Amino acid sequence: MFRRFAPLIAVLLVLTGCATRPSEDSAAPPETEGAFPVTVAAPGAPAVTLDKQPQRIVSLSPSATETLFALGAGPQVVAVDSASNFPAQAPRTQLTGLSPDPEAIAAYRPDLVVVYADTTGLAGALARTGTKTLVMPDAKTLDDAYTQFEVLGKATGHQAEGESLARQTRDDIDKIVADAPKRSLTYYWELDQTYYSVTSATFIGQVLTRFGLTNIADGTDPNASGGYPQLSAERILQSNPDLIFLADSKCCGQNAQTVAARPGWNTLSAVQRGQVIALDDDIASRWSPRIVELVRTVAAAVAKTGA
């Protein structure tokens, strides 16, 4: 998740969920079309060979969970991590992708585990039980996200659906961007109340760059701090952004009113012109098909600046 680059509390705030018990007698869904064995790999991740279509999938990545359900692999998913809160029917548990417990995961008898990173040797531990681990790292570009849709489709026996989902998402985003007015605007993207932000070198930053927006967090090097710098209130006030996007509305209760109440912030153009946009934190931090909703929100904000 993008937010793990900000302070740890910004990550933990979204990791709430309710536990469910491992299913011991879940009926496996019928086989869907797909040629197995297949070898798949997400950009920047190791290749994995699957001998047959997985029927018991555990997802420890909220972005992957959303994608799996969007491409029709939901019936194959037997457990997801506590942060995977969409869609509603996803079988949430107390599992976590931050510090995955191989024994707890194995209790769900998975034949495929999907994670966004493997820094603890999880793949090796699960391999000893015959379980494959597919790493789906943070998407660095929209093209990476589209490729992940295709990879998950191929890995789960839904290759056509994955390709269709990638194509439709790309087309939707391209059309929204093409139809949006072209304006020279600056913006500040807020991850939390300590002013951690994203630069244009990040996935989210590149999405907003599609609209020709200028990121006040870029400074002289958009790659500094891994693309997730902590700004100061003074820098934000001096930059006077035209747009403020709040990716901390659900976790931290931030909105246009709380921003306007900050010392000196009522003088900002974005505040005075009603251009403080409270986002859905989850949509704003995941590279799932719901990125289309974020792009629509940005397009609406850009259009409103000319109203």
UniProtKB/TrEMBL annotation:
Keywords: Signal. Pfam families: Peripla_BP_2. Residues 56-306 form the Fe/B12 periplasmic-binding domain. The keyword Signal applies. Residues 1-27 form the signal peptide. SUPFAM superfamilies: Helical backbone' metal receptor (SSF53807). InterPro entries: ABC_Transporter_SBP (IPR050902), ABC_transptr_periplasmic_BD (IPR002491), Vit_B12_bind_prot (IPR054828). The keyword Isomerase does not apply. Belongs to the bacterial solute-binding protein 8 family. This is ABC transporter substrate-binding protein. Transmembrane segments: none annotated. It comes from the Bacteria. The lineage of its organism: Bacteria, Bacillati, Actinomycetota, Actinomycetes, Pseudonocardiales.
